[in-house]
């Protein structure tokens, strides 16, 4: 082995191939030229391959390509040696080249085997091109769809924007209205409170000088009793009476201003009990007039008991006060109509003309002089306020000389006006 | 010795700021059956000075009955009531709260401050006169006062 390597270029034991056998010139040069042709091609091809590989760094299977370069170069070298051996019989070198070629070639085979399926799997350029075209089409379709979507989104956004603007304007408008309403409610509440305070203070402050006038004149009457002439007595009488009526008026005005107020919540109220209370309060007047009061069985309704008692008291008191020649008879009835109760207070008194049937519920003036019938003209106005606070109506049916029937309604269960939102 | 056997008139202190009301009260008291002498003061400070015999009231008589209005200037009647009933010497004098106020709060606080009774002044003078008569009859004929013992 060592001998082989040290004598790689030793040609002493071999003849030049020209001298080995009977080579004709033509035959000899056929081998020589063919081998040169092959070896030169086998040099050129790897050069081309190599430069190709060098210039395409992304080339797959680079190792295989270099192996090809190697084994082709090696093969070219063996052919070159075959040609050279005609003059230079370096058979040991030629053998070495051949061995190298065999090794590299088999290396290539070994490298090729596993990559063959991989190479087979690689798509052909045509397939790649088709795929690219497909992808391009898909991309285009996607872009179109996206543009369409964007357009629709813009449209919808613009729509929403417009709707939002108008909605906001409406909300602002509502808020303004709400605020106005709140302010109006506040003003109203303030005004009501002021009115009530005014009425309370006025009546209180008006009573004081009235007491002074009334009291002093009463003292005068007593001090100078019998010592004054008749005219003086009459004047004193009228003064005292005037002061008394003024006191009653102040009381009634105060009561009117506070009537139908919300001092007490509405709750279940037994009308029979309220009527009993009213009759008890009127006991003296009823007895003196010889009045008889009858009633239907009355229901329980949602009301303010105090106000209901007052209502009955005013109506029955009127029935007694405005009586005819016969002893007064009053009947209190109740009827249930869809959604409310309708009450009636019927009397056999003097009655009134239908054209006055609305005016009597206003605060002034009265239908009679005070000589004919006492009173301040506020009683029915108070009744109206009470009924209206409960969400009902009040009216009268009457003819002169035929008695009167007062009707009023109280809703059942539904919200009265003071609790309506 | 009952009031009928009295020789001297009963001393009454009237605490009232309104001159008209004071006049009417005096009229009513003049008309009463029992002889009486009315001292009038017009505000709370004067009332306390009178009762304590301060200043110009050094020789003031000790009243046997106090008629007290609630709404007074300078010192309010409610405070006068409290001061009288806090004072050991003065608290034995009967105090009749005589006022135009009918407020429940005033009634409650007056009795709470140990007023002997509370009377809401009637608006009508004749009835007021009757009430004054009743007050006098009650306190000076029916009742035994501490000063009589």
Detailed description of the structure:
- The complex is a heterodimer of chains A (421) and B (149).
- Chain A has 421 residues and is α+β, with helices and mostly antiparallel strands.
- Among the domains of chain A are: 2-122, no CATH class; 266-411, Heat Shock Protein 90 (2-Layer Sandwich), CATH 3.30.565.
- Chain A is built from 10 helices and 7 strands.
- Chain A has helices at 2-6, 25-55, 62-84, 91-121, 125-223, 230-258, 271-281, 283-289, 305-321, 379-389, and strands at residues 267-270, 292-295, 300-303, 329-337, 340-347, 394-398, 404-411.
- In chain A, the strands form 2 sheets. A 5-stranded mixed β-sheet of chain A has the order 2-4-5-7-6. A two-stranded antiparallel ribbon of chain A has the order 1-3.
- The model of chain A has no long low-confidence stretch (mean pLDDT 88).
- Chain B is α/β, with parallel strands linked by helices.
- Chain B has 5 helices and 5 strands.
- In chain B, strands 2-1-3-4-5 form a 5-stranded parallel β-sheet, sandwiched between helices.
- In chain B, helix 3 (77-86) links the parallel strand 3 (65-68) and strand 4 (95-99).
- In chain B, 34% of the residues are buried.
- The A-B interface holds A 207-208, 210-212, 214-216, 218-219, 222-223, 244, 247 and B 18, 20-21, 23-24, 27, 31, 100, 123-126, 128-129.
């Amino acid at each position: 082995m060592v001998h082989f390597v040290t004598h790689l270029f030793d040609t002493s034991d071999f003849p030049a191939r020209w001298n080995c056998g009977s080579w004709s010139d033509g035959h000899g040069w056929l081998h020589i030229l063919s081998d040169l042709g092959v070896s030169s091609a086998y040099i050129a091809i790897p050069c081309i391959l190599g430069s190709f590989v060098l210039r395409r760094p992304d080339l797959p299977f680079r190792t295989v390509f270099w192996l090809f370069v190697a084994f082709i170069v090696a093969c070219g070298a063996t052919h070159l040696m075959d040609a050279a051996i005609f003059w230079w019989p370096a058979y040991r070198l030629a053998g070495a080249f051949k061995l190298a070629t065999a090794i590299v070639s088999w290396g290539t085979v070994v490298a090729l085997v596993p990559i063959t399926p991989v190479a087979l799997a690689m798509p052909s350029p045509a397939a790649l091109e088709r795929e690219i075209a497909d992808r391009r089409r898909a991309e285009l379709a996607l872009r179109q769809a996206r543009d369409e979507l964007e357009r629709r989104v813009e449209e919808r956004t613009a729509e929403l924007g417009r709707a939002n603007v108008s909605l906001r304007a409406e909300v602002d408008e509502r808020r303004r209205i709400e605020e106005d309403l709140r302010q109006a409610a506040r003003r109203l509440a303030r005004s009501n409170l002021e009115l009530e305070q005014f009425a309370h203070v006025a009546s209180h402050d008006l009573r004081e000088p009235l007491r002074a006038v009334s009291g002093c004149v009463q003292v005068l009457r007593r001090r100078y009793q019998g010592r004054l002439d008749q005219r003086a007595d009459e004047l004193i009488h009228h003064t005292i009476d005037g002061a008394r009526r003024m006191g009653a008026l102040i009381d009634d005005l105060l009561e009117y201003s506070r009537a139908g107020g919300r001092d007490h919540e509405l709750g279940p109220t037994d009308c029979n009990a309220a009527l009993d209370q009213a009759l008890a309060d009127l006991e003296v007047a009823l007895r003196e007039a010889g009045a008889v009061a009858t009633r239907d069985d009355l229901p329980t309704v949602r009301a303010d008991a105090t106000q209901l008692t007052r209502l009955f008291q005013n109506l029955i008191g009127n029935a007694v006060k405005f009586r005819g020649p016969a002893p007064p008879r009053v009947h209190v009835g109740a009827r249930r109509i869809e959604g409310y109760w309708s009450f009636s207070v019927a009397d056999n008194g003097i009655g009134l003309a239908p054209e006055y049937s609305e005016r009597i519920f206003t605060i002034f003036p009265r239908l009679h002089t005070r000589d004919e019938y006492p009173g301040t003209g506020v009683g029915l106005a108070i009744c109206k306020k009470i009924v209206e606070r409960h969400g009902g109506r009040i009216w009268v049916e009457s003819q002169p000389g035929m008695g009167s029937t007062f009707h009023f309604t109280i809703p059942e269960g539904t919200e009265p006006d003071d609790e309506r939102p | 010795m009952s009031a009928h056997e009295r020789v001297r008139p009963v001393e009454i202190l009237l605490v009232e700021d309104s001159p008209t009301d004071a006049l009417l009260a005096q009229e009513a008291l003049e008309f009463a059956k029992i002889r009486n002498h009315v001292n009038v003061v017009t505000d709370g400070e004067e009332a306390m000075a009178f009762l304590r015999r301060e200043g110009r009231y050094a020789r003031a008589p000790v009243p046997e009955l106090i008629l007290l209005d609630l709404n007074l200037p300078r010192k309010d009647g409610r405070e006068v009531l409290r001061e009288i009933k806090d004072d050991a010497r003065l608290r034995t004098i009967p105090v009749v709260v005589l006022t135009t106020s009918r407020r429940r709060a005033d009634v409650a606080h007056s009795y709470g401050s140990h007023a002997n009774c509370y009377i809401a002044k009637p608006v009508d003078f004749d009835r007021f006169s009757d009430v004054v008569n009743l007050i006098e009859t009650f306190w000076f004929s029916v009742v035994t006062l501490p000063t009589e013992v």
